[in-house]
């Protein structure tokens, strides 16, 4: 992967993400600093390879980012031979009556919503790690940059609100995706125990 030592974000985030009991984390760092490797390591550490159902769910705002994240999971998890990745993205059709037996699901909001709520392919009560990659892009509740929200942006917000408020209520309050009162890590990033 090209890491000789942890980057700053990895140094701060990994102890929290790998802690027992697990801690929730909101982290922000520039592109190329190793955020994806950090949350992928956390996902891989929480998977029970003997259980053949989704245990980790990663939402990415775009098809391309979902594929890119999946490639990182595959590279980092190449020695976890029984851990597999499933892509919940456009074009990936699951026949009716088929169960998702892969432990890590990476996908875009629309397909994930369909798989979770319409087709009931993913049981969110069994998810051990939930990642919102580029959450600022998906949540963007303020809309100051563009006063006209596209249907796609509004759809993403509704999907995230549905997933988070029904299944991760400690992360959401009211009808917004605001993070509740939380602890602060030494670098000022928000954390919250479930």
Automatic annotation (TrEMBL):
List GO molecular-function terms, semicolon-separated. ATP binding; helicase activity; hydrolase activity; nucleic acid binding
> Which keywords, in A-to-Z order, does the entry hold?
ATP-binding, Helicase, Hydrolase, Nucleotide-binding
Region spans: Disordered: 174-194
Q: One Pfam annotation, family name? A: DEAD
Q: Which SUPFAM superfamilies match?
A: P-loop containing nucleoside triphosphate hydrolases (SSF52540)
Question: What is the name of the protein in this document?
Answer: Helicase ATP-binding domain-containing protein
| All residue ranges annotated as the Helicase ATP-binding domain in the record | 16-160
Could you tell me where the Polar residues compositional bias lies? 179-194
């Amino acid at each position: 992967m090209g890491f000789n030592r942890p980057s700053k974000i990895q140094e701060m985030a990994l102890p929290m993400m790998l802690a027992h009991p697990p801690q929730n984390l909101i982290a922000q760092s520039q592109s190329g600093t190793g955020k994806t490797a950090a949350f992928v390591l956390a996902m891989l550490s929480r998977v029970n390879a003997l259980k053949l159902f989704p245990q980790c769910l990663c939402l990415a705002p775009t098809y391309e980012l979902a594929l890119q994240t999946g490639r990182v999971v595959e590279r980092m998890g190449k020695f976890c031979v029984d851990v597999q990745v499933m892509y919940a993205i456009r074009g990936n059709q699951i026949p009716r009556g088929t169960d998702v037996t892969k432990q890590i699901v990476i996908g875009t909001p629309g397909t994930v919503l369909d798989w979770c709520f319409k087709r009931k392919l993913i049981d969110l009560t069994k998810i051990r790690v939930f990642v919102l990659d580029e959450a600022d892009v998906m949540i963007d509740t303020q809309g100051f940059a563009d006063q006209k929200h596209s249907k796609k942006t509004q759809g993403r917000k509704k999907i995230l609100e549905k997933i988070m408020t029904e299944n991760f209520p400690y992360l959401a309050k009211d009808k917004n995706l605001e993070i509740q009162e939380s602890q602060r890590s030494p670098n000022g990033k928000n954390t919250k125990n479930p």
